[in-house]
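Sequence in, structure out.
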Amino acid sequence: MTTHTTLNLAINTLSGDIAAPTTEDTLTDNAAVESLDVTYLGLGGTDRVFVGDQDGIGFDGQGRALIRAVGFSGRLDQEWGGGEYEYAAQTSDEIARNYIEKSAVPSSLHSVANSTWDPTVPNSIFLRDRDNPLSNLRALVDAELRWVSEHSDGSIHIDDIAIGSSVASFNDSTPEVTITRDRERRGLRNKIIVTGLPDSLGLPLTSEAYASSPFVLSPQDYWVKDLNFPLIQDQTQADLISARALEIHNVRPERGSLITLLAVGVEPGDTITLTSSYCNLSSVKVFVESVAYHIPACTREIRWWRFPE
């Protein structure tokens, strides 16, 4: 899971004022926080490829400046100092939205899928001084097998790790498309043990899900994956997560990359369809883990993950 998007942007300061450079980006000031909005104008495109906060700037003494910027999730990646806040009788999506908005990210810049899980039963959870809201958010998201990511427009998205409707198709018969694929048997896990929060008597909360696999030989039979989620306090949620994790991990893990021309329209958490005669893929739907834009090379690199629908 990504922490937050980062950007390094080199600007020739001799071409104009650093606050209004003559390159293909614009700097604006918003409530005393410098934000960075990069729009790529090449190949006829006018879409944003990055929106976030300027984190720093360095000058090399030779007429160039390097701007460092982070996505809006970076606002969560600071120790909280606003006092203790209790969450009770709230679903996980409500808590996630509150973590985000308490970190100065407005509702217009996030999309959190609805959930029915209430992680505050029977015990409340808290945001306390010196807590890191991003770490708290990731613990909440992980315990529900969800994915948190930033899109090219700066918005933060949280949704299930799942194969959905495909947003785009790619075929490496097209010259500008390169697809790679890597599969590893030893990464398979056909037994999942989920450990939640012990009860008031110290008794452990655990759930196991397992199934046979032709790739795990007898007498081993099972390769185990431990998932420790202290936010899970009820058996129903533990059983649900162990069963879903088994569906995802009881296959030989398969990941790869897609390099194509620079464009937007595919974001982390999306599903895309791949066809490759070189990689033996025929209209296979995969989950997008990350998208990187390489502006000088006019390309984007999509990292993907394949698992059962």
